[in-house]
Specification:
Blueprint: E1 5-9, H1 13-24, E2 28-33, H2 39-47, E3 51-54, H3 59-62, E4 67-70, H4 79-86, E5 90-92, H5 94-99, E6 105-110, H6 115-126, E7 132-136, H7 142-148, E8 153-157, H8 160-164, E9 173-176, H9 191-199, E10 210-214, H10 218-226, E11 232-237, E12 245-248, E13 253-258, E14 261-266, H11 275-290, H12 295-304, E15 313-318, E16 321-325, H13 332-340, E17 346-350, H14 363-369, E18 370-376, H15 381-387, E19 393-397, H16 400-410, E20 416-419, H17 432-444
Parallel strand pairs: 1-2, 1-4, 2-3, 4-5, 6-8, 6-9, 7-8, 9-10, 10-11, 11-12, 16-20, 17-18, 17-20, 18-19
Antiparallel strand pairs: 12-13, 13-14, 15-16
Domain Mur ligase central: 109-288
Protein name: UDP-N-acetylmuramoylalanine--D-glutamate ligase
Function: Cell wall formation. Catalyzes the addition of glutamate to the nucleotide precursor UDP-N-acetylmuramoyl-L-alanine (UMA).
């Protein structure tokens, strides 16, 4: 019998993970990357005798596939992807392909912001009592973990790009943290397309599955009104009492109710600060409650969770000035939460690749809290014209080291220096992690 041929577009973490799993499941595997494949991934492919190419796409080797796994970074508009679709070859994401080879309970977390923190926190709680992996947009690829560990449960952080290429993927528990305009460049600048993409996380769910979502998010609530889903709904809210789900009561306790069982958790000992993190804690705790984790374990886990690198991460205090790394804020809404949580005058480092940003929702915080702005991008024109009249000092630079030195000169005792770019990082940095690490290095060199 002829082996099924899978072609994998993109030789990064998800691509190489998929190649290894497909090889183990007796597929004929070929990996093709238009860019350069990193050495560490090349070595894995070579050591496992998997055929690959980089810096080109050979159409004759790609268009004869039975199935194609494309990296989430490759847009549907790419000419090669159009050709593949015209030929009627099925395109799937790593999440879709890998989920076929596990019977694990899947928790899928998506949203414009908060998904990394929520996924990491949910995993942190669950691993106290369950056999659980953390994958998706985080850490080792889902496919590779299924091959090497096959955990009984997985928490998956999933982007809209990964959801665009699912067919049968069906999580037991889905979480939508929030939906705000992001990545609109990939969705024809149509917010409705992006919203629909996020809701694909629940499209195969039945009434025996759960959808946990932010009931304070008008976009989510309106979508559910007009597009009813099959899953059992468990909303969470900071402002209204919820019968089935989670809410914040008058005493600042999180109350979770599922099938008439209750948990009450005080928020005064949460290690994570800010209203948005109470929401992330609600979502993660609801997941844990559904999976029968003991109340005591949930409480203790919330109180000892250390947070996520590059997400409002306190780096150092120098001359009584706190330096904060929020490089993971790649959109306006994430920066909104960062500025909202600032309690001291702030020198704000912002900028990068603008994804069609509307900065209006930041104006109130900029007026209240920001004393100076440093624009760090290849093109800062929009930022300069948007914020130029709001602060006394606004400067621009293309170098992280220089941005941090300027901030050091501007900041006074009791101030904060916040890197919260509200933009993607690809103009000056490899990714948001690289940007965050360069910021931390520059701060440590002061």
């Amino acid at each position: 019998m002829k082996k099924r041929r899978i072609v994998i577009l993109g030789g990064g973490e998800s691509g190489v993970g998929t190649a290894l799993l497909a090889m183990a499941k007796d597929f004929d595997v070929f990996v093709s990357d238009k860019g350069k494949i990193k050495e560490k991934y090349k070595n894995v492919l070579i050591n496992n005798a998997i055929e690959w190419e980089d810096e080109k796409h050979s159409e004759d080797k790609i268009l004869n596939a039975d199935i194609i796994m494309k990296s989430p970074g490759i847009p549907d508009k790419a000419p090669l992807v159009k050709q593949i679709r015209e030929k009627g070859i099925t395109i799937v994401s790593e999440i879709e392909f890998a989920s076929k080879f596990t019977n694990a309970t899947l928790v899928a977390i998506t949203g414009s912001n908060g998904k990394t923190t929520t996924a990491t926190l949910a995993h942190h709680i669950l691993q106290q009592e369950l056999d659980v992996g953390l994958a998706g947009n985080i850490g080792d690829s889902f496919a590779k973990q299924i091959l090497e560990n096959d955990f009984e449960n997985y928490v998956l952080e999933i982007s809209s790009f990964q959801l665009d290429d699912i067919v049968d993927f069906k999580p037991k528990i889905a979480v939508i943290t929030n939906i705000t305009p992001d990545h609109l460049d990939r969705y024809d600048y149509n917010f409705d397309n992006y919203i629909a993409s996020k809701f694909r996380v629940t499209m195969n769910q039945t009434k025996d599955d759960y959808l946990i979502y932010d009931a304070d998010d008008e976009v989510i609530v309106n979508y559910l009104k007009n597009n009813p889903v099959q899953a059992t709904l468990l909303p969470f809210s900071l402002v209204k009492a919820i019968e089935n789900g989670a809410y914040l009561d008058k005493e600042n306790n999180i109350k979770i109710t599922i099938d008439n069982t209750h948990i009450i958790m005080p928020t005064n000992n949460l290690t994570l600060e800010g209203k948005h993190n109470i929401k992330n804690a609600m979502a993660a705790s609801t997941v844990a409650h559904l999976l029968k984790i003991r109340k005591q374990t949930i409480r203790e886990s919330l109180e000892n969770f250390q947070g996520v690198e590059h997400r409002l991460e306190n780096v150092l205090k120098i001359n009584k000035v706190q330096y904060i790394n929020d490089s993971k804020a790649t959109n306006v809404n994430a920066t909104y939460f960062a500025l909202e949580s600032m309690s001291s005058p702030t020198v704000w480092i912002v900028g990068g690749v603008d994804k069609g940003n509307n900065y209006e929702e930041l104006f109130q915080f900029v007026n209240e809290k920001v004393k100076a702005i440093i624009c760090l991008g290849a093109d800062n024109e929009k930022l300069m014209s948007t914020f130029g009249n709001m602060v006394d000092v606004i400067v621009e630079t293309q170098f992280m080291g220089e941005a941090v030195k300027i901030a050091y000169k501007m900041a006074e005792t009791g101030d904060s220096v916040l890197l919260s770019p509200a933009c993607a990082s690809f103009d000056l940095f490899e990714n948001y992690e690289d940007r965050g690490r360069q910021f931390k290095d520059a701060v440590r060199k002061l």
